Every structure is written in C-alpha cells, then in structure tokens.
Amino acid sequence: MIHALRSEWIKLRTIRMNWILVLIGVAFPVIVCVLTAALEKDRDFDAQDLIDLVQTCSLVTSLLLGVVGAATITGEFGFGTIRPTFAAMPRRYVVVVAKAIVTVVVAMAVEAAVVLGTYAVAGAISRSRDRRIVLDDAPNGSAAMLGIVLLAAIIALLGYGLGLLLRNTPAAVSVLLLWPLLVEPLVGALLHAVGVEHPFKWLPYNAGIGIANPEADPDTAEHLARLAGGLYFFGVAAAIALLGAVLTDRRDA
Questions:
Q1: pLDDT tens for residues 152-161?
Q2: Burial tier of 87 (Cβ tally within 10 Å: 0-12, 13-18, 19+)
Q3: Any residues with CB less than 8 A from the CB of 2 and at least 6 apart, and which?
Q4: CA–CA separation, 114 vs 132, rounded Å?
Q5: What number of other Cβ atoms are within 10 A of residue 197's Cβ?
Q6: Closest Cα partner for 59 from 244, 235, 230, 213?
Q7: Domain count, the chain
Q8: SS3 category, 1
C-alpha cells in the first residue's frame, strides 16, 4: 500500500491541469476575502462576515477539487495508463483505495490552506485598521471552518467516485457540477410541488453543505443537524465510490 500511495501521489502532482485547478481554487477565495476585508470601510468586518465569505468562496474550491478527484482516475482510463498500473498491481482494490486516500488528503490539505490563509490575511488587514477578528466571536465559528475542510474532502471523494463509474472526464465533471447547481434544485422543487414536505433536507449536497454553515440549525423539520447532514453526504459519496470500485474490479481496464 505504501508503494501504491507514493505512486498515486507522484501521478497527482505531476499533472499540470491539477496544479492549475488547485491554484485557481486557492487564489479565488483568498483574493475575494482580501478585497472584501480591504474595501469594508463603512462597518466592521467581523468573524461572522469572514466565515460566511470563506464558506461561499470555498464551495468553488471544493468543486474544483472534486474535478481533480474525477480527473485523477478518468485521465488514466482515457489515456490507457491504467492498464500498466493494474498490471504492476494486480490487486485493483489497492490502486483504487490508494487513489482515494491521496485525493481526499490533498483536498483536505488544500482547503485547510485556503481557510487558514484567508483567516490570517483578512485578520491582518483588519488589525491594521484597529479591528480585530476573533474566530470565537462567531457562533460555531471553529466548527464551521472545520466543516469547510471536511466538505471539500467529501466532494473530492464524490468526484473520484463519479470518475470510477463513468470513466470519462467530461461526463464525470458535468455530473459533479450540475448535481448541486441544477439537478438538486429541480428535484427539490418538483418534490415540493407534488406535496413532499421539506424535500431539500434529504438531497445530498443540500444536506451536506450544512456542515460548513456556521448558522446551520439543529435537527428540525427543515434541516438535518450539522453532523447528520455531513455524515449523510459522506455516505452518499462513499457509496458511489464503493460502487465504482466494485465495477472497476469487474470490468476490463
């Protein structure tokens, strides 16, 4: 397993597209948060404002990391490099698990860097204007910041699972991006129209995003609790990845 992990890490960090996506994912929230903190002159830019901003911008980072997760496996199928990989490691599950571990760990590391970077830079700008950002001032501030990192890991795992299932980069990326932006809103609206009460709480993305929401309500009729929503979304992503792993083991490379 150690050799497989090392091999997958080398593959991930030597693909130029991955670096481009990661750089965009890091730069976007940092730039937006820095500009917002610098331009806020009429009122204080406090910890709650920072967390809300980081959460919103980090969704872009999470989706880009999901694209990296999908391309990690679809690229190998597309270029045929998965065949020598499986030839060198006949136990396919070792390769599949190693790729999943590397994908999730990298996603968590990148998102953690984004969260810490934006907090540090925005805090420095605020201190230079005699304003102080203290994370504890925001209710559930620390939990929300941790939730942002975990959400990125779950979406990266989901992207990887879709890549295993579909084996095609455009298809996997399209499903990954359209699911939260188009499919879930339409499905939720249709279910609500036919009389289903509070359908959005059972839609995976909508439930999972609560893990990164500092204002997430406790378990109510409209929302799942923060932990329950996160675990539900992780369960869906893990189930898709597991199904993809089973099919990868049974299908021709």
A1: 999 999 999 9
A2: exposed
A3: none
A4: 20
A5: 9
A6: 213
A7: 1
A8: coil
Q: What are phi and psi of 168, to 5 degrees?
A: -140, 125
pLDDT digit string, tens, across residues 116-133: 888 787 777 777 766 666
Q: 128 lies in which domain range?
A: 2-169+179-250
Closest C-alpha to 153, from 62, 54, 26, 29: 62
pTM metric for this prediction: 0.87
CA dist 90 to 62, 109, 253, Å? 32, 30, 12
Question: Is residue 19 included in any domain, yes or no?
Answer: yes
Which tokens go with 240? 């898709």
Single-letter residue type at 140: N
Gyration radius of the chain's alpha carbons? 20
Helices (H), the chain: 2-13, 16-39, 47-79, 82-88, 92-128, 141-166, 169-178, 184-193, 204-208, 226-250
User: Are 208 and 132 within 8 A, CB to CB?
Assistant: no
